[in-house]
Amino acid sequence: MSVSKDPRTHPKLLAAVQKEGMHETTFLTPEFTPDAPKESIIEFCSQAEKGIEEVYRNLDYTVTHPSLSRPIDESEERIVGPDGNEIKILMYRPAGEAEPIPALLYFHGGGMIMLRTDNPMHIAWSKALAQTGLHVFLVDFRNALHPGGLRPFPAGLNDCVAAVRWIRKHSAKLNINKIVLHGESGGGNLALATALKANSEGWQDEIDGVCATDPYISGAYNMPSEWKLRELPSLVELDGYLVMCSSSSLHARIYDDFGKHARDKLAWPYWAEEEDMRGLPPHLIVTAELDPLRDEGNAYYRKLARAGVSAVGRVSLGVVHSGELFLRKAAPEIFLAHLWDIKAFVDRL
């Protein structure tokens, strides 16, 4: 089965995928396994990043709707990270909003290793979130893949943590009244991991909520097929539905420093125990029906519920990985539903 032949695929999304040729993304299919030389893996991921960036640049993110007409003020802040590095934070706030409003820290997707923070999809998503009445902070964390040398876990996570703590410290000046973490795919990993780290260090009260969309959180690509089919069957059954697990396994190698952190709950939150989750703030976990990552997100939601965390889980039927975001023009109703679900979650906190 494939995304083109699966009758569950939303027809509008299928038409968009076929129009853009995304059902034949051969640049995402490696010709070697995760035990290949490090140099080969780095080169493949670097080329894949270029291909994905080109796809994102060429897509139309325009959605016309009365709820998206609010003007937005844009600004930028630079803070010092944990390693003396500079962290850029792009900020989007409803124009003229004088009252304190919730802050949404957005960590972008890209498997924690790639994609520009300021690419068109991330900017468009940030602005749409701001138009719902949120103060959005788009955090330029360190990707693990970098031309100047690899920056694996925990570099990017530490940048996200630093951003949260800086924003909380300056909440009065920033005119915000809540802090909610959000991310899709790899950004979902970072949002969940940031909350877990806060919980383990005792500052979880600085975070009011967490929303993760299609989180990339298991890194379980080297597990036997029998285990995958039992625990995370979507890794097998939906492999190739826009996301190639062979490619994702290479991203995982770069992020966790070639297996050094393969079961670290802060690198891969799927492996967190219920005890690690007790005391976490409320969570919203959204997964896509036709995403290889679907079952790890669903499993995380169930574990949160067993740990006594206030958690809501939702599966987007007929949708592929991150389809609500990058295919918004094709199916605006799905995009808008996802957007306002996030706002409703924030408002309930």
From TrEMBL:
It holds the Pfam family Abhydrolase_3. Gene3D superfamilies: alpha/beta hydrolase. Keywords: Hydrolase. It comes from the Eukaryota. InterPro entries: AB_hydrolase_3, AB_hydrolase_fold, GDXG_lipolytic_enzyme. One of its GO terms (molecular function) is hydrolase activity. Residues 104-322 form the Alpha/beta hydrolase fold-3 domain. The keyword Nuclease does not apply. SUPFAM superfamilies: alpha/beta-Hydrolases. This is Alpha/beta hydrolase fold-3 domain-containing protein. It comes from Zymoseptoria tritici ST99CH_1E4.
